[in-house]
Amino acid sequence: MPISAVSAEELDEQKLFIRRVCAVIHVFDHKPLAYTHSYGCQQNVSDSEKLDGMLEKMGFGFTDTPDNADLVLYNTCAVRENAENRVFGNVGALKHLKARNPDMVIAVCGCMVQQEQVAARMKQRFPYVDLIFGTHVLHKFPEMLYSVYEKRERVVCIPENDGVLAEGLPVRRESRFKASVPIMYGCNNFCTFCIVPKVRGRERSREPESIVSEVKGLIDKGYKEILLLGQNVNSYGKGSEVGFPELLKRLDELDGEFVISFMTSHPKDCSHELIDVIAKSRHISHHLHLPVQSGSDRILKLMNRHYDTAKYLELVQYARSRIPDIQLTTDIIVGFPGELREDFDKTLDLMRTVKYDSAFTFIYSRREGTKAAEMEDPVSDEDKGKWFRELLDVQGEIGEKAYEKYVGKTLRVLCEGRGRTDDKLLTGKSRQNIIVDFAGSDELLGTFVDIKITKALPWALVGERI
Ligand code: SAH
Ligand code: SF4
Ligand code: F3S
């Protein structure tokens, strides 16, 4: 089925189900509480904010533990096996709560259950899960939940399709000044190791006007950091007039003091134009998360990444020449099928050349249904573990000194909460997306302050307000 936009009528229909659920839970002898938890990436967190938005409209309050919840909702991630195991463990742990409170509704949704074999396992192993739904029916949550309350039997809804685009769902945002805004959904890249295209469907971009108006609305409401989301933001608007650099330009024209950041940028179509837009911007974060995955061209080809290390290094060099204070971070996979020691050594070389500010490193996890799952994988888990630790050591050494260049400089910081190095301090993020801790009072939360950096840690800076 092709991608379809969810119509206004369909959304109105869901509003009706919101009212119906409202009527059902209204008769409870207490205000019903929901516990929702999101695993995985920011996209999932953003989806959960919409699920929470719908729950709020239905009349639910929220609790931070499943123990006293009337409804537990897990939004799951399938990207690696350990992410899935954690969910299986946590859903298993709900059994005794459900036994104690049979009226509790348990729902599991998201990327994991969008895989047929996992949904089957979930259904069979956890008969007490009431609602299971996939990634393409988020907007139908009220209808599905009503069905659970009405029929008192399990509801499963996991259509296989290319995905939908639903505008205007209610959102309950976690923060008063940081907001995530998805600009596109799905992925067309089919990196051979990755399950995301299978569980999230094909790439679909929101209209630039909807995004600009949402961001403007958020800024008017006092939001100071806007995180634009997409599996590959560089493919935003492909084939249309407004691509990602143009979208950023339009957002940068908005007035106010705010920072716009984005995730994730795929190196294959990260352009000089994009880097130029960031360099000239007033509001765009000086942070580029550019996942390289491997430093071996042979492995990059097997991964279907569509760039080689020469192109990657050229991009890094260009970004640093245009934006000297840019923070560069990456993702790396160790132990892709068929990776040899000599390939891994090239990854270490690339890390030493680029000197990332930080790197997210993963041991390859076999995902059923991907191309890499069919490839020969002769390297032992033990060797992979050894390489992984080596990689951490090398990045540790690089990261140790990465932030020293900021000592003595003044950075403008958005104050976000209690200190991460010391809870008597406050914490915030600089335009480079670096954590900065400093002394100050709670009135500073959600404001920008100038901080003179006095100390650099491998993962944060400490400074004083000037
Ligand atoms: N769309 C983003 C990545 C999303 S997944 C991008 O292309 O950059 C986040 C990271 O998880 C990936 O960059 C990759 O490093 C890692 N990852 C994805 N699938 C994996 C797998 N099967 N095993 C180990 N790591 C994986
Ligand atoms: Fe996965 Fe590659 Fe798509 Fe990222 S770009 S989500 S790694 S397939
Ligand atoms: Fe995981 Fe789905 Fe995100 S698989 S990484 S939650 S898109």
Q: Largest sheet, described in full? A: 6 strands, parallel
The helix count comes to 14
The CA-CA distance between the termini, in Å, is: 58 Å
Instruction: Label the CATH architecture of the largest domain.
Output: 3-Layer(aba) Sandwich
List the uncertain runs: none
Strand segment tally: 21
**What would the CATH topology of the largest domain be?**
Rossmann fold
What is this structure, in a nutshell?
The chain is of the alpha/beta class and 466 residues long.
List key phrases describing it.
binds FE3-S4 cluster; 36% helix; Rossmann fold; six-stranded parallel β-sheet; 4 domains; 21% strand; five-stranded mixed β-barrel; Transcription Regulator spoIIAA; binds iron/sulfur cluster; single chain; globular; 466 residues; 14 helices; alpha/beta
Task: Itemize the secondary structure elements and their pairings.
Layout: E1 4-5, H1 8-26, E2 33-38, H2 42-58, E3 61-62, E4 71-76, H3 81-92, H4 95-100, E5 105-110, H5 116-125, E6 131-133, H6 141-151, E7 155-157, E8 164-165, E9 178-182, E10 184-185, H7 196-200, E11 204-205, H8 208-220, E12 225-229, H9 244-252, E13 259-263, H10 272-280, E14 287-289, H11 297-302, H12 309-322, E15 327-334, H13 341-354, E16 358-363, H14 381-402, E17 410-418, E18 426-430, E19 435-438, E20 448-456, E21 461-465
Parallel strand pairs: 1-8, 2-3, 2-4, 4-5, 5-6, 6-7, 9-12, 12-13, 14-15, 15-16, 19-21
Antiparallel strand pairs: 10-11, 17-18, 17-20, 18-19, 20-21
The protein binds S-adenosyl-L-homocysteine (SAH), iron/sulfur cluster and FE3-S4 cluster (F3S).
